[in-house]
Model the fold of this input.
Amino acid sequence: MKLSVHTHEELTVLKVLEPRLDAANAPELRLRVSEMIGAGTQRLILDVSAVEFMDSSSLGAVVSILKMVGGSGDLVIAGAHGIVAELFKLTRMDRVFQMAADADSALDMMATA
Amino acid sequence: MKLSVHTHEELTVLKVLEPRLDAANAPELRLRVSEMIGAGTQRLILDVSAVEFMDSSSLGAVVSILKMVGGSGDLVIAGAHGIVAELFKLTRMDRVFQMAADADSALDMMATA
Amino acid sequence: MSTYNIRLFIDSQLAHVRLLGSAVRGIGQELDLPTEQVGQIELMLVEAVNNVIEHAYDNETGHDVHVRVECNPDDQLKVIISDRGHPIPAAQLQRGSAGDDALLPEPESLPEGGWGLGLIRMLADSLHYECNQDGNHLHLCKQLA
Amino acid sequence: MSTYNIRLFIDSQLAHVRLLGSAVRGIGQELDLPTEQVGQIELMLVEAVNNVIEHAYDNETGHDVHVRVECNPDDQLKVIISDRGHPIPAAQLQRGSAGDDALLPEPESLPEGGWGLGLIRMLADSLHYECNQDGNHLHLCKQLA
Ligand SMILES: Nc1ncnc2c1ncn2[C@@H]1O[C@H](COP(=O)(O)OP(=O)(O)O)[C@@H](O)[C@H]1O
Ligand SMILES: Nc1ncnc2c1ncn2[C@@H]1O[C@H](COP(=O)(O)OP(=O)(O)O)[C@@H](O)[C@H]1O
Done:
């Protein structure tokens, strides 16, 4: 799974470089994040702007990541669009996640949090 | 089959509005052109700029259109791109057809012919 | 325009589901459906196929997952997902018929699953499930814009 | 990445070929192949399927056209077109092996057909044809960029 990791002080921006998050690769995303948390990451921006398709089992993996980082202030989902944004809306999980239009506004959001 | 027809003096620009020309719809294109020729059309620009896919059986229909209009000076293929342009090139039928980048340059080509 | 149909098969492996999803997305694009609708069709299909692999076949490889796509481009698209594994329990299938609230897990409980059938119900314009000697068949229908 | 595969079936009708073409185009896009390559794969597939409908089945509806797509996204894509109709005559299949000139009809003769097998040969990186008790199978292989 292609991911890019950028660190901005205590913030980590994890960008998913795959066009697809589904039951086949969501477990790997979960694992990679749990390794990052084990290595000290505490506040995370998950940039899904390159993701064109996402299913509910990868939404489950993202919820599990939310639980791992601790509180909702410590995870922002950035760049959800198209069917990915719709998945968060249909399941009403956009009530639970902090959602930002892109990684930059997610950085602003976290700086003021 | 969606086609648009524009007449510029004795020239007709026939634009194919379908994204696909294949064995299923090429006979209809051939028929529609033969009706136009029956109704007096002599010089034709076939604008395929909206066509994203074309197979060899529709290339055969275009050759048959060339024969119907008479000489190669009387038919210009405009706007072939992607796999459509490649089909003309692979079969070397770009040697036989006059090809123009778009309908405007086809009009220029015919005006000076 | 007349009705077309195509049948697609994959083996019961989650890694192969993207081939079905992208094939059906390609068909939706060919039919010139709006992008949002193409995404919704792919999502309802993928949720149904994931359920077949995970629940009907208990994640066992070596079974066929069959998808039939029927389309009348002027009107509607039908996607029929068939398997020969365990059928969907009636209680699960009826979930949600009592109203939207029962359809999906509560967001605040931070669920990690349980959205599949609810999403399918929300994304399909109609749903019909049939079990016969040929297996289990989930018929999903989408009205085209 | 491991190998995936999917099988697709249509009835032997030219109107249904676009479903196969667009499904395989969707798969090519999903694998992130360059646009030119996706177009080439669709063209070689459509030429082969048209031939099956027109020649193997003499334009008779009611027969299965079977396409199997196998892909190893790092390496190559195989498209296998199978039918149970008349096989491709050996003479036609060998046409072109003597050199490019014999592959395609002369442009200046204003041909209205006869390009199919030549195009398939040019677009596929390798080609293999096999007839057995399960039918006729045209194996086309495309190296991925
Ligand atoms: N195709 C199926 N075959 C058998 N059982 C199914 C199928 N789809 C769903 N189920 C049952 O219905 C339950 C709810 O499914 P779903 O809403 O998709 O959530 P999840 O798959 O996350 O559990 C599943 O846990 C399973 O017991
Ligand atoms: N799948 C097939 N089954 C049987 N015969 C075939 C098949 N494909 C091609 N042929 C034979 O080979 C000939 C050449 O095919 P092709 O190069 O595609 O040109 P065309 O289809 O325009 O004739 C056909 O006319 C037909 O006799």
Summary: The interface with chain D takes residues 2, 4-11, 15-16, 18-27, 29-30, 69, 71 of chain C (CB under 8 Å).
